[in-house]
Each structure stands twice: as C-alpha cells, then as structure tokens.
Amino acid sequence: HNHNHNHSHNNNNSNQIVNNEKLNQIQNNNTAIIKEKESRKRSAVSESHNHSHSHSVEIEITRDETKKYRKKYFLTQFLHLLNDSDSRNIVVYSIILFFFFIAEMSYGFYTQSLGLVSGACHMMFDFFCLITSLIAIIISKRNLNFSYSYGYERTEILSAFINAILLIFASLFIFFEAIERLIEPVHIHGESKVSVSVLALIINFIGIYFFKNAKSTERKYSRAHNENMYAIFLHVFAETIGTGGIILSSWLVESKGWVIVDPLMSILIAILILSSVFPLLRSTSAVLLQTTPNEIQASIEQGMHEITSIDGVLECFEQHFWTHSPGMYIGTLRIRVRSDVDEQKILDYTNQLFSDILNDFTVQVEKEDWGLTRL
Prior knowledge:
Blueprint: H1 2-83, H2 85-111, H3 114-140, H4 155-183, H5 193-211, H6 223-256, H7 261-288, H8 297-308, E1 313-325, E2 328-337, H9 343-354, E3 360-367, H10 370-374
Parallel strand pairs: 2-3
Antiparallel strand pairs: 1-2
C-alpha cells in the first residue's frame, strides 16, 4: 500500500512538472508572438514614415521644378518681349509714367490744384492702359488651340475696350470735380505748378515719339496690334493737350489771379478725353458684339443680291458676318435651292464671291426637298 501511494505521488509530481513545462512553453510562445507583432508594427510604422518622407520629398522636388520652370518661362517671355520695339517702348514709358504719376499726384494734393490732380489721374489711367495693352500683346502671341480656335488676337481688342471704359470714368470724375470747383472756388498755390506741368509735357512728348507710327501701313504687325498701339497714341496725345492746358491755367492763375481758369481747363481735359475715347469705345464694342463690319457691308449686300438673283436659288437665310479682329472678317450663310439645281456650282460661285471679302467663310447649300427627305 505504501509502495502504491509513493508511486502515485511520484506520478502526480511528474505530471505537474510536465504541465508547468507546457505552461512555460505556451507563455514563451505567446511572448514571442507578441514581440514579433510589435516588431512588425514598428517596421510598418518605420516603412510608412520612410514612404511618407519619400513622398513629401518628391512633392517638394516637383514644386521646386515647377517654380524653376515658371521663372524660366516668364524670364524667356520678358526677354522676348524686350526684343520687340513696341513692347519695349511700352515697358520704358510705363516706368516713366509710374514715377511721375506719384510726384504729380503728391504735388497736386499739396497745392490743391485740380488741374494737377486731374492730370495725374489721367496719367495713372494711361499707365494702366499701357500695362493692360502689354499683357494683351503677350497673350495675343500664343498659338491657337482647340479651345481658342481663332487664336488670342482679340485680346488686344478687349484690352482697348477696357481702357476706354476706365478713361470714361476718369473723365467723368474730372468733369464733376471741375463743376464743384466752379461753384465753390478753392485757392491754389501755383508757384511751382508750371515747372511740374512742363516736366509732364516733356514726358508726353516722349510718349508721342514712342508711338507716333502706330497707324503706319509699313508696320509688320497685324491690324489688331496697330489699333491697340494707336489707342495708346491717342491717350498720350490727349494727355499732351491737357498738360498744355494746365500750364496755361497755372500761368493765368499766378499772373492774373483767375482761379476759375483751373476748373475750366479741367473741363476741357475731360472733354478731350471723352472725344478721344468714344471712337475707340465704339469700334471695339462693335467687334466684341460681333456686328456686321461697316467696311465691307456694301460688298456683302452686293454679294447677297447676286446670289439671290441666280436662277434656282429660292432664299438665303441665317447670314452672319462679323469681325474677329480688325482686318479679319468671318461669315456664315445658308442657301436653299430647287431640287433640280446643281448645288455644287452655286457653292463654288458663292465662295468665289466672298473669297476677296472674308477671311473665313462657311456656306451650306440645301435642296428644296431636303427637309422632306430628312423626314
């Protein structure tokens, strides 16, 4: 019995040892698994951090390359711009106007001279006119594409239209300020006003010299560009006359004491601005509104009369003729003819009639029974 009891006790001890060993093994396995998971997690975080860092570096490199490309592009465009005589004149004259505008406006407020202030305002609008025209010239040099199938040449027309609107607002401001000065005269300090105006006149003469050949037929530029440059010339010319009026009014105020002359000269300047702007506004708005060009209207009417007089032509309809830019005319036309007429001959004759008038012409000839056949 004692022998059996000892044997049973030994078996229990051995079983307990085996169980403890299994338990330790399981705990070791669990610990190893946990460590492996933590190691994988740290590795994943490290890889993610490295990937994120690599991705951010790639983004920074891309941004740097884009900035370098843009700087190189604008530098190339600017250098190309300076090679063009008109663009170079605009840049130089814009710089001169900007610095003199600051000086004239400051002195105008100091002396309370409406003439100087109005001249400075006009000079400021001339400055913006030059900048807008310069930007339009840059854009107009781009090649045509799918979105702009006719190119960017009309941007110079849009630039001239915007400048005309701005100058109208400027002239109206000067006009109403002059009326207020007529009602309530203000004392003007005119000791050095003439010298400032003489400097402005010299600058205006420089502008006239820069842009005097804007309408010359010998220029290699397009008519749209020439119109844009001629608009600049008109602005400078009106400014020159206005500055001459300021000099005269300053002399009369200083020598005769006629303070009323200053607002009267301002009214004259406003009228001169309006007289120079309205023709420009009318011509540019006619292009932007796609009206039938006055220059070729008589030729278009004659061509339409010849087409309708052809035997077999029933009617001409949906005729549209407009100006894309000065000198570039576009048209579309639909013609209905009898079913027994050779439409190809009428098509060729119509194209021949308008080939010398229009730069781009689209015509569609339809048979009399075309609508019934289609149904």
